[in-house]
Design brief:
Chain lengths: 218, 218
DNA sequence: AGTCTTTAGAGAATTTTATATCGAGAAAAC
DNA sequence: GTTTTCTCGATATAAAATTCTCTAAAGACT
């Protein structure tokens, strides 16, 4: 088996997206007192092919036992370890409007690999206020702070009009990955990773699935 | 050419996710006074292969002219038409916390195929209040109203503890597609479409991209 | 007019991702 | 103790998505 931690092999994105859902299912099962779990069980619960589940799990480097499956805690640990949930990366969030607050309060992201260590906003009225334990700082302090604290992840939750401005600040501060919730494309220096959380894209998929489903039933 | 509107052909999901970004780019270009646009230009702007852009666009049914490309307004219209942005589907939103409010105010979804016609919440303190022009209704009216109004889309923006409950109400009301922002899997009747907006999955992808990028540069 | 460059469009080739098959091992049933 | 059943893990096949290649058409340039 190929140990995931010691090589730079490319992980299929679909696999990366599925792993958290496995983990989530496992926490539920573990809460029910389940001790071990098989790929077939996971597949059935999540409507996935068992072979696919097995391949995804194999990537995390764990070995299972025939007839039994995987020890549920070992498997959870393996996924956590593989996804880097053990040592969260620091992140800055910009924009504490509704969306920003939702992200801050969404769940303990720090248990899922990311620690939002500071929040920023351009609105003077919000500076100094406290949201979910983070004091809001003025945007113009972002670049300096990011550089001093070696923060690598920036989350953009501002209106699209100012998103590029915020992105520029982030890049100036040495941030290497931007999680962009604003519905605009960002122009950043080469090497900086931008991941767009595009609701319109999701909506397009949903609409299409609904349309084809209703078309078939009529 | 295969006219998209008159057949139930399966559209690749990646294509569906890319089309909105093309449209967005086109609005920007149109604002700059651009008259026609080629796949190469789009590809360069969005970091995509030109051939891929061309194939995506071809699915919407438009024809371009060699050397020129596509008329920018025709192309926008073609995408809008293909994605059904011309006749939005009605939707109910449940949960007007931070996330729900963010969705309500996110942008005019009704220009992108979905019209959020009502908002619901289980919290009596929120009932009757107005958010972005929608009065909040009590959750127990959802099923009846959905059935009466033939609403087919439900948006879940509640804490994960109550998400299943809300989903049940939606299914009871005849809703056929659920856009789930709660970080839980939902158990619904067969035939009901569930689209999970899984932030942890996105985060896993982002983390991995960052990790492999930093690993390579070190 | 003739040449050159750019581009759409169609199809082939490649890559990626998903599914199916098979053998071996481990527990449970008999 | 033997058989049955279930599951992992590896390999093979299939499907999906992306990229490449080629041709013809449209404009630009000489």
């Amino acid at each position: 088996m190929y140990m995931a931690t010691e090589n730079p092999m490319r992980i299929p994105e679909p696999t990366l997206r599925r792993l958290p859902s496995y983990h989530h299912l496992l926490t539920v099962l573990a809460g029910d007192g389940v001790q071990s779990v098989s790929c077939s069980v996971i597949g059935r619960a999540l409507n996935l092919d068992a072979t696919q589940v097995r391949k995804d799990i194999a990537i995390t480097g764990i070995e299972g036992k025939p007839k039994v499956g995987y020890d549920i805690y070992d498997l959870m640990g393996s996924i956590e370890n593989f996804l880097g949930w053990n040592n969260p990366k620091q992140a800055f969030l910009v924009g504490v409007g509704n969306l920003g607050q939702a992200i801050l309060g969404y769940q303990q992201f720090n248990r899922y690999g990311m620690d939002i260590v500071a929040a920023f906003d351009g609105d003077p009225g919000k500076i100094g206020k406290d949201f979910y334990g983070r004091e809001v700082l003025p945007l113009d302090k972002l670049a300096n702070l990011a550089r001093r604290m070696h923060v690598l992840i920036g989350i953009i939750a501002v209106p699209k009009e100012v998103a590029q401005l915020v992105a520029d600040q982030m890049v100036a501060g040495g941030i290497q990955a931007i999680w962009n919730f604003a519905p605009v494309g960002l122009d950043v220096a080469p090497g900086v990773i931008v991941q767009n959380e595009d609701l319109f894209a999701s909506l397009a998929v949903l609409s299409n699935r609904l349309a084809t489903a209703t078309a078939q039933s009529s």
